[in-house]
Amino acid sequence: MKRHMIGLVSGVVFGFGLALSGMMNPARVRGFLDIFGHWDPTLAFVMGGAMLIMALAWAFQRRTIKPACAEEYHLPGTKRIDARLLIGAGLFGAGWGLGGLCPGPAIASLGTQFVPAAIFCASMLVGMLLFRAWDSRMS
Amino acid sequence: MIPGFPYAQPIEGFLGGLLIGLAAAIMLLGIGRIAGISGLLARASGMSDSGPKQSIALMFIIGLVIGGGLFSLTLGPIEVRYPPNLWWLVPAGLVVGIGTRLGSGCTSGHGVCGMSRLSRRSIIATLTFMVAGFATVALVNLSGGGW
């Protein structure tokens, strides 16, 4: 129950932060990616603020054995730089540039801009399903 | 605010970024998990076996919607401008869905959590999706579809 509350609170703070930062506006995100046009540096300040807090959190994490409300840390162990990583990130970036949306702002907009957010989120879920179907055939 | 960039909102951006970092820190130090939104969405929707318990991932996703709505109700409205043709969001969403699963993360997991951990894999992923984003916007502009 406590862990569910942590998930919920983290989600609420994340969504509120996204809205405050301006990142729920696709035109602003697109503006950051428009480096040859009317560049909008706001996203860099968002990343700076978020990474500042997370760098402190990682420094604290390294000094602890386990998280406050779970038995252990579950952290990505793989260090592999492979075709999956590069092609996946490339595809993600193309979609990000096309729509001005990444998963966080798209989901957080479901309550405020239902129609466009739902079109994007439904398509994103279909994409994830397609990946799963392909991935299970590969293995 | 910043000379030469009349539309930039550096203060709101930075403050919002601090909250995003705080949210990711709560997940990490609270339950030992990465606040990677594409991964949590796949987990919450039953499409992935890795990550926190499905119900916890679902709570995070619900919280995300509540957080956006809460801002809109209190400090809002949230300024938005979408692509002129909303059907663009279909191919955009599709490749974001495929790409984030194939590349194991998006702006939150690789960008915020991975880069601050100095993960080489996340730094390379973030540079890759940023360059792909720059190229896509430039191509759309060149083809006359800029918005």
Automatic annotation (TrEMBL), chain A:
Query: Which keywords does the record carry?
Result: Membrane, Transmembrane, Transmembrane helix
One Pfam annotation reads DUF6691
For whether the record's keyword set contains Membrane, the answer is: yes
Entries under InterPro entries matching the protein: DUF6691
Transmembrane regions: 41-60, 85-108, 114-134
What is the protein's given name? YeeE/YedE family protein
Species annotation: Altericroceibacterium indicum
TrEMBL record, chain B:
Subcellular location(s) of the protein: Cell inner membrane
Gene Ontology CC entries for this record: plasma membrane
Which InterPro entries does the UniProt entry name for this protein?
Sulf_transp_TsuA/YedE (IPR007272)
Q: Which topology term describes how it sits in the membrane?
A: Multi-pass membrane protein
Main subcellular localization, coarse class? Answer: membrane
List the keywords (alphabetical): Cell inner membrane, Cell membrane, Membrane, Transmembrane, Transmembrane helix, Transport
Source superkingdom = Bacteria
Which residue ranges traverse the bilayer?
14-35, 56-74, 86-103, 123-142
Q: Which family does the record claim for this protein?
A: Belongs to the TsuA/YedE (TC 9.B.102) family.
Protein known as: YeeE/YedE family protein
| Provenance organism | Altericroceibacterium indicum
